[in-house]
Design goal:
It contains ten helices and 14 strands. With about 325 residues, it is an alpha/beta fold. Helix 1 packs across helix 5. The radius of gyration is 20 Å and the shape is globular. The structure holds threonylcarbamoyladenylate (TXA) and magnesium ion.
Length: about 325
Amino acid sequence: MIIGEQGISKSVECLRGGGVVGLPTETVYGLAGDAWNPLAIARIFEAKDRPLTDPLIVHLPEAGWLERVVRFSSLEQRKMVERLATAFWPGPLTVLLPKHPDLPELVTAGSDYVAVRVTSHPLFQEVIHRLGSPVAAPSANRFGRISPTSAEDVRLELGDKIPLILDGGSCKHGMESTIVALDGESLEILRPGPITKERLNEFGHVGTARKIVNTPGSLPGHYAPRKKLRIIETDIKGFAAEADSGYLAFTTPDPEMRERFSAIEVLSPSGDLCEAAANFYGALRRLDNSKVDILYADPLPEEGMGVAIMDRLRRASHGSNHGSGHHD
Ligand code: TXA
Ligand code: MG
């Protein structure tokens, strides 16, 4: 792990040589490689053990770089992206757009669409600027596992697979970017995230049902801990935890609830959904590494950032919630 100015120059050097680097973003840590270097892209897939059919997000340091990786299909599309860019970039919004024909196929897994975002993280921006090339980066976890929100998390996930991790402290949002596809005047949310449906509403009709573009990575069993994870969906009073259980609580639990668990993580004592999101993956990882046998999680209110957290929680619990029938 490496920090500061030396960290930036070492990261650029590594990327320039076709290597991969664990880097901080404002959402989660990414595993970065030069988007124009197919060998670097292949190394990302290999380190994560990710299927080659699952495309990568391309990161830019500023919206002015868009046409290096995108080819707009119409003036309307360009205008819509400009409006979104003004409102949300740099920041946690990823937009699916027609890909530049020269961008390596491996990045988009053969799709004609590329997912792009402009990161607001100053270290990552600086690295991309100095490299002078767009950077492809998925979350820096092994495929299907818990996303990393600190450099130490990246070390635990991929430390033995990658040469360098740039330490930029913990991630501001703690939740992956919102992914949208555009269809004329409407937007489709493919993955909920920090930019909420409410905030996107003023840019056009926001749908979730139609599939303008397929997202291969949106599997039901994703973000998974090793341990079984169940969302507490029954009446809390009638709920009985088995011996040695861990509890992912939304707010500070009452003493009666506390004594049923041998490990507890509180996402936000005051019930703030943004704070809960920032703590989510770290808390899940600590419980997964604790001595308990099974994990239980509070459901969170599905509004604002709560939509993204519940999306991840359902996927993380996929296969563990027998009988609850509520995951997708
Ligand atoms: O916040 C984020 O988005 C983080 C940071 C590192 O930028 N990145 C991230 O990447 O979450 P990843 O690979 O873990 O998730 C990206 C999702 C996957 O489900 C992938 O299938 C989808 O976006 N995706 C990427 N490119 C796509 C494309 N061209 N077409 C459809 N889906 C795409
Ligand atoms: Mg991921």
